[in-house]
Write a structure and sequence with these properties.
mainly beta; 5-stranded antiparallel β-sheet
Length: 679
């Protein structure tokens, strides 16, 4: 008799504040529809910019009078407005220095851009780029245009240190200013053609009155190069990320990759040579770039949802971590915490996001719409912690976030229907490594949801059990014991069968006796010491598919082999799925019972797969999937259910949805994917 444990282990980093169970400290609402590039300074003040709506009244006098205005806002560590400034230009990026000065970059979209006396450039034709510095009160200290005489320019990213202000972007101007000795001073051409779009990297002096260096990057005929991210290190070297379709884009010897479209380049502090240049991926998606104190580079790709960490020489990827298995996820922003771990925000349309992070929050089952999340990755790219971010209003768009040195998280989201923007500050959970029960989730999905009687749950925290993992043991009655390696879990004081115990994770079975209760209090007792307790809601059902490491459903084909893309289920065949949280069986089961017979479930299950139809517009049409059997899994512990489903002939996607309705009429569902196709 063998129990198959299908859970996932979380990888923890001791001493780090946790992203799980964030506690909201405050929120502030603004009458703007969206915002970008939230930056948090050392005092916990937040800065962001947005398109200024009609009628917006800033606290400072506006700069300029024509064109489309942007607004820059600073709020203090308590959420109070410090200042707001309107600038008649399109802001694309924002940075803050150690003295709380703010640096803006973008492009001019009107003739009244407010350049200051002594600025490096002014009065350029067309649509030039710009760089501006605001002082601690939000007033312009200096502002300069940046561009050429024969084409438009856009400054897309900005970074700052004591040596100067670093920017990159794209230009159509062959007369864009470059400096003597720069890496690339002229545009490359082929025949009679000029480049479509070329990248540039420029460093301005601290006064904004001149260039320290400026260089093109890329630009043969008919090919585009876009620069989208910039960073600098302690030695003054400049890192730039972007994409290029140029066939002879410069790649240095020993580069990590020599082909692709998304690239990372490191320019010497003098701007004269490339210390390295490497491709990263075939994608040309939106990117963000950060560099840690050791000179490692972190590049975030929006889609595919991936974070790549490159060593200081550009010759190796220390990790390349794709966040989901099925490309239903977008990454939105990237930050580094005080320990140098990468933290990313994103949004996903699927419940099968393949991340071994504990206890993602979700009310009532798998996400029915896009859900926003935060993830922290350690130095090897493994997930330390994270969670879904549940907002208190519909139709929201989670965009930027920031971190402060204490581990507080600042989140921003737009609520489009009301044309408002909300910034929130969250205190982190207890530091990883303290003795703490952090969260309880469905062991199959790792989602925080109401707990159902008989559901196998995963408890995450620190100091919960033994350092050496222990697996289930049977008591003299042949049931799964409730005491394992000096570890016990109680629901309202009732001992629960323990399947797995380790200091950072416990898997247990919720007692059937909690049926009918509205909540239950869960506590862990290790070596006679009780941790903090967590109260969670109780539901009659709370189903979840067990998943494999790729995020797909852990399924068996009709011949007993494991379902995977290389071994798909045939249309019309029967697949066997394992779920938990599907409610009571008939006859009833006992806590910890190892099922020896075949019995059915008390509540019906419906299943469907999907067919994608349409040519110009794709439409997903559900196709009913016949449930052949649903009941407790023979030879496994009570709480693991088997659902056997016939793959409908009309399905042409591998997505499979399981739907259940409680006796009170409450609907629950879970959705993930299996592999289907010919074999």
């Amino acid at each position: 008799m063998r129990f198959i444990w299908l859970g996932l282990l979380a990888v923890c980093a001791w001493g780090q504040p946790s992203l799980s169970n964030l506690q909201q400290s405050w929120k502030q609402t603004f009458a703007i529809s969206s915002a970008y590039n939230l930056v948090v300074d050392s005092d916990g003040s937040s800065y962001f910019f947005a398109v200024a709506p009609a009628g917006f009244v800033p606290s400072n006098p506006p700069y300029g009078s024509t064109g489309s205005p942007s607004v820059v806002i600073k709020i203090d560590a308590s959420g109070n407005l410090v200042w707001s400034t309107v600038l008649y230009a399109k802001v694309s990026a924002l940075a803050v220095d150690g003295l709380k000065n703010v640096y803006l970059a973008g492009f001019c979209n009107g003739p009244t851009f407010p350049t200051t006396p002594g600025a490096f450039q002014s009065g350029l034709p067309g649509t030039p780029g710009f760089v501006a510095k605001l002082n601690g009160s939000g007033r312009i200290e200096w502002a300069t245009e940046l561009g050429g005489q024969d084409g438009d320019s856009n400054v897309s990213a900005v970074a700052v240190d004591a040596r100067g202000v670093y920017v990159d972007g794209t230009t159509l101007a062959s007369t864009f200013p470059t400096t003597a000795g720069a890496f690339q001073r002229t545009l490359k051409t082929t025949g009679m053609h000029q480049p479509i779009t070329v990248g540039f990297i420029s460093k301005l002096n601290p006064a904004g009155s001149g260039l320290v260096f400026s260089t093109f990057l890329g630009g043969p005929a008919g090919a585009d190069t876009f620069l989208k991210g910039i960073a600098t290190d302690g030695a003054g070297a400049v890192y730039a990320a972007g994409s290029s379709s140029e066939p002879d884009f410069p790649v240095t010897p020993g580069a990590y990759k020599t082909t692709g479209s998304l690239f990372l380049a490191k320019l010497a502090a003098s701007g004269s040579t490339l210390q390295f240049s490497t491709f990263l991926d075939d994608s040309s998606s939106y990117v963000e770039l950060k560099v840690d104190a050791a000179g490692n580079s972190y590049v975030m790709l929006q889609k595919p949802a991936k974070v790549v960490k490159i060593d200081p020489t550009g010759s190796a990827a220390l990790y390349s971590r794709q966040i989901d298995a099925n490309s239903f996820t977008l990454l939105l922003h990237l930050a580094l915490d005080t320990a140098g771990n990468a933290v990313v925000s994103g949004t996903t349309l699927a419940s099968d996001i393949a991340v071994p992070a504990p206890c993602f929050s979700n009310s009532g089952g798998a996400p029915a719409a896009a859900m926003d999340f935060l993830l922290r990755l350690n130095s090897s790219g493994e997930t330390i912690d994270g969670g879904y971010v549940l907002l208190d209003h519909p139709n929201s768009d989670f965009t930027p976030f920031g971190l402060d040195s204490a581990g507080n998280v600042y989140l921003a989201d737009a609520e489009y229907l009301n044309a408002t923007y909300v910034v929130r500050k969250f205190a982190p959970g207890p530091a990883l490594g303290s003795v703490q029960l952090r969260c309880v989730g469905n062991s199959a999905t790792l989602l925080k949801a109401p707990v159902a009687p008989g559901e196998i749950v995963a408890l995450f925290g620190d100091g919960l059990g033994p350092d050496q993992a222990a697996n289930l043991q049977l008591d003299p009655e042949g049931k799964v014991a409730s005491l394992l390696a000096n570890t016990q879990v109680q629901f309202d004081g009732m001992p629960a069968p323990v399947l797995y115990a380790q200091s950072r994770q416990i898997n247990a079975v919720a007692p059937w006796e909690i049926l009918g209760r509205s909540t239950t209090q869960i506590c862990v007792i290790f070596k006679g010491q009780t941790t903090n307790c967590i109260t969670v809601p109780v539901s009659e059902i709370s189903p979840g598919f067990f998943r494999n490491a790729s995020g797909r459903i852990a399924a068996l084909n009709d011949d007993g082999t494991i379902n995977n893309p290389q071994n798909p289920a045939r249309l019309g065949s029967i697949v066997t799925l394992f779920v938990t949280g599907t409610g009571p069986a008939v006859p009833p089961e006992a806590d910890g019972e190892v099922i020896q017979d075949i019995r059915g479930s008390a509540l019906p299950v419906k299943a469907s797969m999907f067919q994608i139809m349409g040519v110009l517009v794709s439409v997903e049409v559900p196709v009913s999937a016949d449930v052949v059997f649903h009941g407790p899994a023979p030879a496994l512990v009570s709480g693991v259910e088997v659902v056997q489903v016939r793959v409908p002939v009309g399905a042409n996607t591998g997505d499979l949805a399981l739907d259940m309705q409680s006796s009170a009429g409450v609907h629950y569902s879970d959705r993930s994917s299996i592999a289907i196709g010919p074999r």
